[in-house]
Amino acid sequence: MRKERSYRRYIPIIFIAAGGVFLLSKIYEKDKRVEYYSSGSIKQEYYVNSKEEADGRLTEYFEDGSISSLVDFKDGKQHGWSQFFRKNGSMRKKTYFENGVQQDTLLTFYSDGDVESAFSIKDGSKHGSYAYYFGNGKKKEEGSYLNDQLEGEVISYSNRGQVAARGFYDSGARYALIRYTNGQQEYISFPAGFEITIPLSFKLDSISSSTFASFKNKKEGISLMVGANVSSQPLHDEVKKQVKESTAANNLKEVTTEEMVIDGVKAQSVVLLDNASNEYLNLFFFKVNDALINVYFFVPASKMAEHKSSIQEIINSISVEAT
């Protein structure tokens, strides 16, 4: 590559008087710079101002002469749209700059011109909503960024438009993931290292970054909460500690405690009675590696006998796997 030519452009200054129009002088405006491939074809051309700063549009070419990019500059900084192309002429990427800082939008495209992804940009970082698309135009994934980190819910779709997964993020870290098969909720996984299959009758109600997810079976009037926390203590000691803290802080009464096995994993079951609401809280604890897994059922006392067997069936249906 070598600099081949420099073209100077002038603006004439015109003076209009009663006797006519007079050309007084010429003022320097910009130099055009052209750079070449060793083959002799143009590699890029652009303008510079009196400070030798890029000013105006820079055009870059592939060696075959097709345009590879169009980038706007102002006083040496990117300012305006920056567009990037494939050799076939289709746009590959498009974004916007203000005074050298990326702002507003970042778009990428498939070779046929359809949008592949769209990101909101603020001060050079991904900030706000984003989406990916399949080649058929259907949405592939959508969510939000906060200062370049994923934040909140991210939904992934199959190419048929059905929900395939829902991920939940806090400052870029995923704290839960729900997988779906044919649009039906299948299981939830946590970074603590386990997956739990949730019965289809329970639908997600809420979820928090403290790794607790709440599901409800509105028809049966049962609420289900699952979560995990890291603990190096033996299961029995950890359960005893949590039950003691819960009963003291929430006006609860311990009713029964039972050891059991869930999906081949030793577990403990504890039933507490909420004296204020007259609801039973059924707690199930088990450990996978250092993750203490908690499964809670909230059932009205008047329906405890009715739902006791169904709760046991649900517990037996839970599949726990170390991830």
Automatic annotation (TrEMBL):
Q: What SUPFAM superfamilies does the record tag this protein with?
A: Histone H3 K4-specific methyltransferase SET7/9 N-terminal domain
Q: Where are the transmembrane segments?
A: 7-28
The entry's keywords: Membrane, Transmembrane, Transmembrane helix
User: Is Membrane included in the keywords of this UniProt record?
Assistant: yes
Q: Does the keyword Membrane apply?
A: yes
Q: Which Gene3D superfamilies match?
A: 3.90.930.1, Histone H3 K4-specific methyltransferase SET7/9 N-terminal domain
Q: What is this protein called?
A: MORN repeat variant
Q: Which organism is it from?
A: Pontibacter akesuensis
